[in-house]
Design brief:
The chain is an alpha+beta fold. The chain has 3 domains: 62 residues, Structural Genomics Hypothetical 15.5 Kd Protein In mrcA-pckA Intergenic Region, Chain A; 93 residues, 2-Layer Sandwich (Pseudouridine synthase), CATH 3.30.2350.10; 114 residues, Pseudouridine synthase, CATH 3.30.2350. Helices cover 17% and strands 28% of the residues. The strands form 3 sheets. Strands 5, 6, 7, 8, 9, 12, 13, 14 and 15 form a 9-stranded mixed sheet that branches. A 4-stranded antiparallel sheet has the order 1-4-2-3, with no helix packed on it. The chain has a two-stranded antiparallel ribbon with strand order 10-11. Helix 1 packs across helix 2. The longest helix has 12 residues. The radius of gyration is 22 Å and the shape is globular. The termini are far apart.
Length: 293
């Protein structure tokens, strides 16, 4: 796909890769840096560098080619394994670890670690073999993956049917209203990486319970009934009780604090053995300061 546009006064003297990201919000800045490196972006007919700053009136032309999938290699990374058998594995994912390789995160992910530990994963995806659900990079806690194709298919079906029950713990600013939150969630109209409450969004339901509180913070139990991107974070923001340390939906004055959202428990019927599986990950140390208060 080819495209072209003329640089406006507001865009002039800004980095080209940044301009392209705002012009085409469905693609990442890393993707446009890749296009520039592959000589697929021109200004006034000449190839450019990602740091170039075009002037008002310059003509930008580009070809939107497919970006290659990163090659996923096994890596010797320690895993906190909560449960494992021949078909599934469950880990306590640490905060700060990305689930699978992608733009900006080609290695040191959960998938790289799982490939080293299991020696093989079902080839369900080039970059996400065995993955049936995800946790945000800054969210810690229970995460399951499939070791066989049949387990992968059945776990995906369990998630689709909402038969895998999840419980999250969060430290929030303020005290949220308890009860069932049913607010549809969709992509933010201008901020590509953010989600927001919108009438035309997808159904999103979360059960909120306040376990402890003081004047400024709360320990919240969140049980998502659906699995929308950033669902708990968006719903708590809507309740005016954003998660402490949330750099997207939280208090901008507390950016140095880690995000205090933890996937605490997960339960389901084993996809092959038809037995009940109950998993839990211990509360991380980052919660301690607030819990003591």
């Amino acid at each position: 796909m080819k495209a072209e546009f003329t640089i406006t006064l507001l865009e002039a003297d800004d980095r080209l890769d940044k301009i392209l990201t705002h012009r085409f919000p469905s693609h990442s800045r890393t993707y446009f840096q890749y296009l520039i490196e592959k000589n697929q972006v021109f200004v006034n007919g000449h190839p450019v560098k990602k740091k170039d700053k075009p002037k008002e009136g310059d003509l930008v032309s580009l070809t939107l080619i497919a970006s290659p999938d990163p090659k996923v290699e096994p890596e010797k990374i320690a895993l906190d394994i909560l449960y494992e058998d021949d078909h599934i594995i469950a880990i306590n994912k640490p905060r700060g670890m990305v689930v699978h390789p992608g733009a900006g995160n080609p290695s040191k992910t959960v998938v790289n670690a799982l490939l080293y530990h299991t020696k093989s994963l079902p080839e369900t995806s080039k970059t996400r073999p065995g993955i049936v659900h995800r946790l945000d990079k800054e969210t810690s806690g229970v995460m399951i993956a499939a070791k066989t194709e049949i387990a992968h298919a059945r776990l995906v079906d369990l998630f689709k049917k909402r038969e895998i029950h999840k419980e999250y713990l969060a430290i929030t600013e303020n005290v949220p209203k308890e009860g069932v939150v049913s607010l549809p969630i969709g992509r933010h109209p201008t901020k590509r990486k953010e989600m927001t409450i919108r009438e035309d969004g997808k159904e999103a339901i979360t059960q909120i319970t306040v376990l402890k509180k003081n004047r400024t913070h709360s320990l919240v139990l969140a049980k998502p009934k659906t699995g929308r991107t950033h669902q708990i974070r968006v719903h708590l923001k809507a309740l005016k009780a954003p998660i402490v340390g949330d750099k997207i939906y939280g208090n901008p004055n507390k950016q140095d604090t880690p995000m205090l959202l933890h996937a605490h428990k997960l339960s389901f019927i084993h996809p092959l053995f038809n037995t009940e599986v109950h998993l839990s990950a211990p509360i991380p140390e980052e919660f301690s300061f607030f819990l003591e208060k």
